[in-house]
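look at this:
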Amino acid sequence: MTTGAVISLAFALLIGLTLGALGGGGSILTLPVFVYVAGIPAQQAVAMSLVVVGATSLLGAGLHWWKGNFT
């Protein structure tokens, strides 16, 4: 695994923890990591960040549903 991949994974973990603690807004954090750390072109990074944040939100909602937090 390359140094860039390790740094990207570390930032991904940090972003995940931040999203879990504060809620939405992950695209603003994810996009610079994709572009500047992972070296992904900006157009692709925008789409990828939306998928990542959407999947994270879906997982969080699913966990809350499973725990019975929905009324």
